[in-house]
Amino acid sequence: MAYQNDIRFLLxxxxxxxxxxHATQTLLDYLRIEQRLTGTKEGCxxxxxxxxxxxxxxxxxxxxxxxxxxxxxxxxxxxxxCHIVTIEDLSGPKGRLHPVQEAMVEYHxxxxxxxxxxFVMSLxxxxxxxxxxxxxxxxxxxxxxxxxxxxxxPIVKAALAVNQYGNPAHDHLTTERNAVTTRLQALATKTRxxxxxxxxxxxxxxxxxxxxxxxxxxxxxxxxxxxxxxxxWVTKFMRPISPVVFILHLEELKRIELSDEAxxxxxxxxxSESQTAIRAxxxxxxxxxxxxAGWQVRNxxxxxxxxxxxxxxxxTPPVLIALGAEVTLAxxxxxxxxxxxxxxxxxxxxxxxxxxxxxxxxxxxxKPGQIDAAYKISKRRDEDISSVAAGFSVxxxxxxxxxxxxxxxxxxxxxxxxAQAEAALVGQPWGxxxxxxxxxxxxxxFAPLTDWRASAEYRQIVAANLLRRFHLEHDSANDTExxxxxxxxx
Length: 490
Ligand SMILES: Cc1cc2nc3c(=O)[nH]c(=O)nc-3n(C[C@H](O)[C@H](O)[C@H](O)COP(=O)(O)OP(=O)(O)OC[C@H]3O[C@@H](n4cnc5c(N)ncnc54)[C@H](O)[C@@H]3O)c2cc1C
Ligand code: FES
Ligand code: FES
Prior knowledge:
Structural class: alpha+beta
Strand content: 15-25%
Bound molecules: flavin-adenine dinucleotide, FE2/S2 (inorganic) cluster
Largest sheet: 5 strands, mixed
Number of strands: 20
């Protein structure tokens, strides 16, 4: 069958058609090496520093959305039908600096300048979306940008002042929105795309049925959603991953349905796309979601990828397991759902058959009497991987604990429930004694590893303290005065 064998997109104002795109060619290499757009920098090549930040505009439900991404771990082949906006595209009226650039100059937001294009792109996206941000919103927007020189305060001041230098309604991404939408609609592809050489082949299925077909034909293919894990396999480990099946463009995997019973999220939904529904359905996860990676990675990374990668330190599995989430897997001709906790069999081993892909996650809404909490312990507050992550869902009726689901990440080879600690809680009156017994029982549930993130002893102590903290935070006796929490390291 004949498929489209090129990738078509807009780069700043120009339409590009690139043939024979290698699956693992990063957007950053394309910009810097092929297009000589060297304003976009390479710092870490692993999504951490934000020096490579660009905007990607994409049609979603017929509307054009722009978001920041890390060009160093985003693959060019995944960008068919998108609008890529780089720092070179920024300018103000009559040849002046762009409002974000003017604010950065006025407030001394740049010293050596290496991080500056990345910060400017993150602040540009923030200003377009929210022209008068609070300091906290600025900090959230630049979580994924590192600066070695300025100490950040001048950058935050610049971000708060951008709106004095211009109005986003006059920015060309606003005034040209309709024209760009029309151009992207013309570039949208209804057929499968296959491009690149045999040893670095990229496949973009036309739709969900085609994805199932592609995976049936290529059961060993690497599925790539946001590439925030797989990107590093390429840039850091140079691992061959051909053929690559890209899925982030598939609208059918972008379903978000919030009902009184459950929230169902398609596997291709990113953290940023799911944030509103997550906050609405599970308010305790709002802040937790903001602590996953930085803004650029949240704009790319999917919950489906966080589950499918099988990592014992992914942030979403523990909190979703605690809530009783189910994962749905699909392949040509069949789908099946299973409790998320059963998906993780052992380190690196999940309940996935050849040709299976994760299609959605269903999270039941909390029942009456259910108390939920999510905790992330990491060395840095922002943009860091957990040493220990925990999700607790404890149901209380007439002051007695009727159900307990306590799930942890970072404590075992998989994200795992603490069966002994749960048993110590169920049937007990809500109170310090029950939670102390549960905290002690964790020693039977887990024998964590020591690694460079944390020692086994630290993990064990911190996990027990999270249970004590959960009790203190939700105990009505502590409403007026917080009781002291035992230190993580005694
Ligand atoms: C700078 C940085 C910070 C990070 N911080 C965090 C953090 O704080 N917390 C955290 O948990 N993670 C973090 N991560 C890891 C990563 O962002 C998450 O694991 C993310 O959810 C992966 O999703 P993705 O869509 O990018 O997956 P991808 O990289 O595209 O894929 C990941 C794995 O899942 C498979 N896969 C993807 N989608 C499917 C599917 N639908 N069906 C079957 N298989 C599939 C892929 O084949 C691959 O094995 C960070 C990553 C970076 C680069
Ligand atoms: S180069 Fe550091 S995030 Fe891309
Ligand atoms: S200005 Fe030097 S790294 Fe930020």
